[in-house]
Amino acid sequence: MNDKSYTLYLLILVGVFMFSQVNAQWVKTDYPPQGSVESIAVCGNIVVVGSQIGGIYVSTDNGSTWNESSNGLPSSGLEVPRIICDGTKFYAAIKYFGAYVSTDNGTSWSGGGNGLPNSPYIQTLAVDGNKIFLGTKKGVYFSTDNGANWNEANTGLSDTDVRTLGIIGGTILAGTYTDHLYKSALNNINWSLSNNGLPSNGNHVRSFASISNRIFAGTNYGVYYSDDGGSNWIAANAGMENSFVSELVAYKDNLFASLVSGEGGGVLISTDLGVTWSEINQGFPEYPYVSALALGTSDIFAGGPDGWSVWRRPLSEITSVKNKNNELPLEFSLSQNYPNPFNPSTNIQYSIPRESEVSILIYNILGAEVDKLFSGISSAGNYELNWNASNFPSGIYFLRMSAVSVESNSRFTGVEKLILLK
Question: What are the phi and psi torsion angles at 45 (to 5°)?
Fold first, then answer.
């Protein structure tokens, strides 16, 4: 069968297999069903999970097996809204007690709540060097002795119901229930309102992340960004309008957002600083509800409600799509991948002349869809992505790109043959 025959063969089979399942890429771990997963933190192969009712669980083998971790923690009421790792220590916010620190990979914990108000209702935690910050329903508190003693840091903070904290450079940000967002210099806490551009109707900031000098805020109404240190905010919601963003994490030039409601739920990725977003939910059950997200050395972890467990996916499977330059193309195009033949990864270039709904799929020789490289809205531009086929056998594959212009409904379909030789 020659090249043209292969292409024709694929196009016929694509119509038959158009609704075949995508190769599952998120993998469910054996995390025990101990209430909703509230937070996940990863350092090396150590994964620590904080749950809504089950306390803290630790995996020392990158999520393969799990053990309860309670040494040094209160004996009951272990709701854990936030866990983070700074590279050497794990920090856990225990909602009704305080913050606890582990220096032995989650085996034991120490800390407390001396100086915190009664029933502080802790909602978040952030760390800068030896200083721990807690966000509570009664404001912000900090500790410089690993959580043993706490001091109030509420100067200028009119809305003390603090839902999230983020430290970006020398600035600390606080997302609150009513006023949405405050910021302060880290070395002299004096809060000022900083919500210009954020929606005012029931909008709460839930998470922060940054790439270079751009700060991102995850809210009840999608993602917003600031290029001026958090003073002004602009929507970055293409493909995820009105979505409840539970967590944002950044990896190199990629921004990940976990959704608990809205446009589809699950996990989305943006490779262009929030301009466009696409789902990466392959392998998740239907209607995924992701309440926690964390990056490891080589994997990304996601957690959800009671019984949904903790899921893991290699970062190498998540394709990075980059807009190559600012020159706008005149027409749709899909180029032959390079190198070809390849092992195990190959580069793919394509062009979009106007904003379009784009899908880029991989099919095997039988016409079955085996991987989804991209699916979402793309603005006009010249793009390049990489397909890593480490988990696929040698053979002939077909790359199919389809695009539909948002404005004019014009359509494009392109197909290229890929040869994987191992």
Answer: -95, 5
Query: Residue 268's CB: how many other CB atoms inside 10 A?
Result: 26
Quote the DSSP letter at residue 137.
Answer: T
Q: Where in the chain is the domain with CATH 2.60.40.1220?
A: 3-22+321-420
| % of the chain exceeding 90 in pLDDT | 48
The top-level CATH class assigned to 3-22+321-420 is: mainly beta
Residue found by looking up tokens 């000098």 in the block = 213
Quote the pTM value. Answer: 0.73
- What does the alpha-carbon distance between residue 21 and residue 80 come to, in Å, rounded to a whole number? 36
The residue among 95, 17, 116, 19 whose CA lies nearest residue 50 is 95
Question: How is residue 10 written in tokens?
Answer: 């694929």
CA angle 268, 270, 274 (to 5 degrees): 115
- Domain spanning 27-317: CATH 2.60.40.650: no
CB 90 within 8 A of CB 40: no
- Coil, helix or strand for 130? coil
Q: With pLDDT > 70 as the criterion, what percentage of the chain qualifies?
A: 90
The token pair that represents 353 in the structure block: 């002349």
pLDDT of residue 25: 78
C-beta of residue 254 within 8 angstroms of C-beta of residue 293: no
Q: DSSP assignment, residue 328?
A: P
Of 12-26, 333-347, 382-396, which gets the smallest average pLDDT? 12-26
Q: Nearest CA to 283 among 262, 300, 263, 261?
A: 300
According to CATH, where is 2.130.10.10 located in the chain?
27-317
Compute the distance between CA of residue 386 and CA of residue 345 in angstroms, rounded to an integer: 7
